[in-house]
User: Fold these one by one.
Assistant:
Number 1:
Amino acid sequence: SKQWYQRRVRGIPVYVGHAPAGTSVKNIIHWAQLLREKRLQMYDYGEKGNMAHYNSTSPPEYDVSGLRVPTALFAGGNDYLADPRDVAWLEGQLQPGIVKVNQFLDDYNHLDFVWGLETNTRVYNRLVRFIKSMI
């Protein structure tokens, strides 16, 4: 709707003024390494640095198969930072029954999970109910 569009456009200066937020250069480099290597691995410090950190020339992979924490997965069909295929891969690595919520929002992108005008009703309410059910 026109009203939705106007609210969204008016918010852009605020959004851009706070982005990127909550991350570091090292985190962005790590993300790029994950894309390049196509492995869920720890940070790659280079051969010498890896030897100092991991006692190995290459970074070890994360083993998520042993996680036992009840998990909620939310994915967006237009999310290019957390691709739905990657979320599906992650779910396949987890033990059966660990994923308690798996919600796919076809029209969501990465930032919609934070800035989306309907995120409260489409994501947060369900997430809060899930967390409360675990307490």
Number 2:
Amino acid sequence: PCASPHKKLPHYDCATAKFYEKAREEREGILLELRTLVEKYGPLDTVAVDIKHKHFDLPDEHVLFEEQYIDLKESIMKPAGVKSSMIPFSCAHFDGQWFGYEFQILLVKQQRRGWSWCVIAPLGKGRSQTPRSRC
């Protein structure tokens, strides 16, 4: 099912607790290592590293979808049925594979130079999530 990557994510409190239960020096070492990787392979102002988590469970055959209101500079994250026009903008790595778990429909107004997208083949019922590039 399309929502399976989302189902594997820990809830927010568990995800953040796992990071913050580490000693301060260990957390700082992890962050320094991540910064070094981003500096080496991508521009710091366009790459985000975050603690993958979820706030709620999704119904079967649904994905987490960002509904955008460009003119208001607002968006809402909500469950949505899968559409072939959806593309992932946030990915997670499970079992040796990259999976999209937050999706949106790319609007023409968003296509600005300098934006970086995690591109995975658009989803449709029965289609695989084969990465074309990594996040």
